[in-house]
């Protein structure tokens, strides 16, 4: 049941073999292989580690499971839900980079195999409950993280599902075109289009091509990919600054040190994509260089009584580069003694926002769960922005609790300290590190007393009370599974709340109500508006219903006992009315409606559905004939295409279907 692997040497990059301190033998006898032997079956998939999953997949799809090639999709899905669950529960997240992209590829491959079983709605996440029943007692982490894992998988499925069907259509057309031309290789630009536009991992496209007896032009694909990366590089905001060999410098601005006497180490012109600058590096500097989400400092460099404005500061490797105006006569030779002076007030605002992001991170993990991980941030003097992993919208109540927790820590005026230490010691003390981030042997840990510990190189207040106030201003989604919170602190938060109060006072005067009655009065006005809108909608619906009934009475075609109406529509509301009216018709009736935007909709009566002329049947036929896309319910569907639509075109297309279906 195993293959013995004798591990005795380590081979380095040059090929040199070094004996291992502890040689060992790897049997490869995992849980599945041992279960297979103990249960006397011929395959891992026949053990009770897999059979409940395979049975559930068969029930979901209505496709019986077979042990031969017909069961491939069942087995792929069962295997992949296991891999996804354990990886995500362990902190991994689907993304477009590194290990996250491996997870995304696994999930998309499982999703594609679901399509092969006619599973067109998100379904993989539903298998979580079965897997927890099988393995949750032995691996409690998947039980504890079940809700989070299911949310991650469902969100990914929904996101990819929007493009998967369209991508499959494109792939099928490409395959048909390649085979018709007598070729056996799918062009690289088509592979890149599937990858870039529809999110198809290349290995998935390769498997699909192999199933069709085709291969991929990977050379052309790699060229397209390289071209795209080159375009991305050229749009970088300060790419030119990194092309210069800048000497190293040391940051000495921690603990509110905003001024220092130091010496010039380098001085050179810098030509960026947006502007021209002069860059200078000092031996040591109180200016913080933009990094880790925190913006660079501004201020001035003073030499011999002359003041040179520092407009921005960038960190480039081990160097901190101060950006100065061009067209100024500078006297900054190497070795020159200067005074570097940071705008202290601006830096203090930045400190408040940076420490607030640490409090926010801890509060998010307390309220939403420990699956929350930082995915990006912006710390500026004016506001803060914090991106984090979470697969659903943060509710209003949760936002209130998060905001309350942060302000509570501010009121406690907790001490904020920082210290450099070995990374192992920092992790042992519970310091949070960014998932997938690379750290050196020595790190800087920032600690908010009895509340938060994070690895961070930025500047911070020395006590949380300095933050003053914290206000969340927005919460939104920025990508699949990534949420963003924007917030203000200190004076910015006070100004924000003052502005809200002024608006509220104005609203009270406008409504001629005391402040405590404003909300009640607004609710009354909204109810009144809702009531009036219902009356208007009812009147319009009655008018539209009368119009569609009249159309079905006069502007129709009858084909083999089926009444067909083709007509233009003006609005979605009108379409809903058309669908409702068609549903009440007691004879086989079909309505096909279109507009100048090349959108179309189909309505079917119940007797028409009974003849296998449902709205879904008809729109599938239209999609195929017009190279369109769309779908919906049995009685009402919507779609669209690129070619111009006419009454005659739609009429002849649907008549052809009716004549083929009704005998």
Tell me about this structure:
- There is one protein chain.
- The chain is of the alpha+beta class and 663 residues long.
- It has five domains: 1-31, no CATH class; 41-183, no CATH class; 244-342, Beta Barrel (Elongation Factor Tu (Ef-tu), domain 3); 350-497, 2-Layer Sandwich (Threonyl-tRNA Synthetase, Chain A, domain 2); 548-661, Roll (Diaminopimelate Epimerase, Chain A, domain 1).
- Helix content is 44%, strand content 23%.
- The chain is built from 19 helices and 25 strands.
- The strands form seven sheets. Strands 6-7-11-10-9-12 form a six-stranded antiparallel beta barrel.
- A hairpin with a 2-residue loop joins strand 9 and strand 10.
- Helix 11 packs across helix 12 (396-411).
- The longest helix is centred in the C-terminal third of the chain and has 37 residues, at 518-554.
- The chain is globular, with a radius of gyration of 32 Å.
- The model is unreliable at 234-238 (pLDDT under 50).
Q: What tags apply to this protein structure?
A:
single chain; 663 residues; alpha+beta; Elongation Factor Tu (Ef-tu), domain 3; 5 domains; 6-stranded antiparallel β-barrel; 44% helix
């Amino acid at each position: 049941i195993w293959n013995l692997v004798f591990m005795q040497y380590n081979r380095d990059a040059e090929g040199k073999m070094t004996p291992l301190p502890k040689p060992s033998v790897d049997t490869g006898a995992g849980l599945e292989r041992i279960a297979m032997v103990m249960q006397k079956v011929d395959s891992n998939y026949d053990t009770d580690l897999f059979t409940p999953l395979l049975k559930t997949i068969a029930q979901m799809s209505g496709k019986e499971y077979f042990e031969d090639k017909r069961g491939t999709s069942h087995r792929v899905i069962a295997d992949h839900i296991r891999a996804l669950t354990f990886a995500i529960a362990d902190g991994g997240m689907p993304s477009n980079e590194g290990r996250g992209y491996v997870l995304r590829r696994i999930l998309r491959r499982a999703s594609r195999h679901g399509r092969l079983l006619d599973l067109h709605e998100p379904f993989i996440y539903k298998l979580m409950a079965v897997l927890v029943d099988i393995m949750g007692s032995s691996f409690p982490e998947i039980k504890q993280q079940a809700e989070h894992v299911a949310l991650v998988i469902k969100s990914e499925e929904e996101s990819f599902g929007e493009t998967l069907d369209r991508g499959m259509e494109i792939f099928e057309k490409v395959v048909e075109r390649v085979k018709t031309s007598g070729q056996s290789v799918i062009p690289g630009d088509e592979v890149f289009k599937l990858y870039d536009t529809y999110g198809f991992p290349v290995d998935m496209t390769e498997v699909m091509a192999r199933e069709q007896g085709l291969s991929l032009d990977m050379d052309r694909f790699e060229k397209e990919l390289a071209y795209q990366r080159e375009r991305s590089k050229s749009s970088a905001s300060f790419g030119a600054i990194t092309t210069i060999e800048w000497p190293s410098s040391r940051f000495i601005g921690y603990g509110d040190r905003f001024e220092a006497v130091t010496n010039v180490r380098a001085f050179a012109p810098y030509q960026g994509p947006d502007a021209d600058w002069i860059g200078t590096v000092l031996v040591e500097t109180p200016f913080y260089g933009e990094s880790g989400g925190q913006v660079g400092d501004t201020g001035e460099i003073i030499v011999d009584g002359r003041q040179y404005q520092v407009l921005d500061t960038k960190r480039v490797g081990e160097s901190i580069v101060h950006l100065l105006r061009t067209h100024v006569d500078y006297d900054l030779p190497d070795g020159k003694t200067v005074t570097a002076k940071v705008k202290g007030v601006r830096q203090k605002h930045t400190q408040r926002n940076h420490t607030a992001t640490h409090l926010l991170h801890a509060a998010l993990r307390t309220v939403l769960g420990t699956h929350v991980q930082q995915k990006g941030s912006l710390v500026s003097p004016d506001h803060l922005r914090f991106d984090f992993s979470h697969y659903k919208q943060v509710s209003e109540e949760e936002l209130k609790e998060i905001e309350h927790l942060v302000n509570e820590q501010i009121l406690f005026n907790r001490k904020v300290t920082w210290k450099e230490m070995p990374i192992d010691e920092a992790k042992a003390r519970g310091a949070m590190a960014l998932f997938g981030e690379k750290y050196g042997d020595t790190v800087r840990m920032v600690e908010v007393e009895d509340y938060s510990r994070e690895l961070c190189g930025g500047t911070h207040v020395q006590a949380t009370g300095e933050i003053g106030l914290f206000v969340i201003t927005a919460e939104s989604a920025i990508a699949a599974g990534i949420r963003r919170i924007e917030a203000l602190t200190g004076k910015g938060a006070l100004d924000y709340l003052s502005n809200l109060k002024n608006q509220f006072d104005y609203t009270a005067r406008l409504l001629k109500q005391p402040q405590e009655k404003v909300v009640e009065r607004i609710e009354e006005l909204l109810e009144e508006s809702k009531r009036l809108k219902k009356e208007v909608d009812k009147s319009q619906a009655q008018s539209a219903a009368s119009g569609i009934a009249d159309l079905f009475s006069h502007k129709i075609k009858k084909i083999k006992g089926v009444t067909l109406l083709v007509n233009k529509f003006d609005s979605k509301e009108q379409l809903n009315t058309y669908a409702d009216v068609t549903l009440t018709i007691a004879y086989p009736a079909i309505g096909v409606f279109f507009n100048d935007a090349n959108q179309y909709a189909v309505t079917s009566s119940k007797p028409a559905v009974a003849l296998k002329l449902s709205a879904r049947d008809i729109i599938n036929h239209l999609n195929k004939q017009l190279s369109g896309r769309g779908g919906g319910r049995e009685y009402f569907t919507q779609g669209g295409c690129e070619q111009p639509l006419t009454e005659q075109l739609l009429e002849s297309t649907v008549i052809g279907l009716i004549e083929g279906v009704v005998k």
